[in-house]
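Practice problem: predict the structure.
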Amino acid sequence: MLEPLLLAIALASAATPAPSPASSAAAQPLREIGHVYSSGTCTSIVMRANSAISTTLRNDQTVSLAIDTLRHVNLDSSNIIERRKSQASIERLAESLRMSSGDAQGQIKRLREMAAQSTDPMRKKDLKEFADALGGALARQERIGADLQRMLVIMDGRKARMEAEDDVMYANPDAIRPGWYFDRDFSPTHYNAMALAAAQEVENRTVGITADESKAAEHVVGAVNGC
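Answer:
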C-alpha cells in the first residue's frame, strides 16, 4: 500500500486561482501525489497524475497573473510601443495557458485509458472521476487562453479597419465611416474597457476551475487504490 497512503497526500501546496467570493470554503485543495509506489502501474498513474496536476497549478498562477495584467495594461495608450508591450504581455500568458493545457490533456487521456483497463472497481471509478475532473479544469484554462487570443485578434482587426478607413477619409473627406453605421459593436478605441471586462470574465471562470480541482482532489486516494 502506498504507505498510509502516503498520499496523505503529500501534495505540494495548491496555488488556487484568483480569489472569488463564490469559492467554497470546504473545497479540497489540489496537490501533487506523494512519490511512493509499489508497482509499475501505480508509478505510471502517479507520474501522469502529478504531471497534469503540476500543469493545472501552474496554470492557476498564470490565470491570476492574466487577470492582474488585464486590469493594468494600457491598450489605449497613444504610445505605440506601450500598446504593443501591453498586447504582447497578454499574448504570452494566453499562449502559455493554451499550450500547456493542451499538452497536459495527453496525460489525462492516458489516465482515462488506465482507468478503463483497471480490474479494481474502486480504482476504475475514482481514477476516471479524477481524470475527468482534472481534464475539465485544464479545458477551462485552455479556453481562457484561446479566448484571450481571440480578443487580441479582434483588437488587431479593428485597428486595421480604422487604418483602412483613415485612408478612405483622407482621400474622400466627406465620406462616412461605415463602421459607425453598420457595426453597432464597433469601437475604434476603448480597448482598456475590453481588457477590464475580460479580466472580470476570467475571474468568474476560476469558480469552475476551483470546483473541478476540488472534485479531482476528492478522488485522488481512490485513484491509487490497491497500490
